[in-house]
Amino acid sequence: MEDISNYQQIKETAEKFYKEIGRLFCPVFNEPVIFNSEGFNHLIYKKGGERAKGDQITKLKLLSLAKEIVRVTTTYQEYDEGLVYTQKKKFKKKVNESTSVKYWGLVAIIKNCRVKVVIRQVGNSQKYFYSVIPAWTIRYYNGIKMISNAKGDLSLD
After folding, report:
1. Count of CB atoms situated within 10 Å of the CB of 117
2. Spatial distance between the Cα atoms of 123 and 135, rounded to a whole number of angstroms
3. Cβ(33)–Cβ(23) below 8 Å
4. Where are the domains of the chain?
5. For 1-127, where are the E strands, in sequence order?
6. Distances (CA, A) of 37 to 40, 61, 116, 122, 152
7. What is the CA radius of gyration of the chain?
8. What pLDDT score was predicted for residue 139?
9. In this predicted model, what pLDDT tens digit does every residue of 11-63 receive, in sequence order?
10. Quick check: pTM over 0.85?
């Protein structure tokens, strides 16, 4: 179980660091990736509520590696595309419309950590940072170190 006693300090430090990034040129897309509030909020919350504090701390501590991966990566390893339903105003009425959403997974080993950064694009908007996750997990079973690759849904990670 991860120590969460310094959670608030980690969150504040990470939020300040995140805001300072703003936008970062990404060679794989040949355009900037935006680090907006939606990406930071996704590190803290998921569908259904707030993430576990330990999960938040893990993601927040990986932000500096995520910045470096976005800055230097020239390939993406995962891609997913789907539809999301959004509410828009048309002629002073709210209507539900489907909009395409694209996800790219940038996986890299950096500073002895295998990390996946998720970039998201809704419709024709700018690409933005969406999440960062460790791309492998280490568990111990009867004193044996077991490494498993993370397999997740890019829209939820």
Report:
1. 27
2. 27
3. yes
4. 7-77+106-149
5. 23-26, 31-34, 45-46, 49-50, 78-90, 93-110, 113-122
6. 5, 17, 19, 15, 22
7. 17
8. 60
9. 999 999 999 999 999 999 999 999 999 999 999 998 889 999 988 999 999 99
10. no
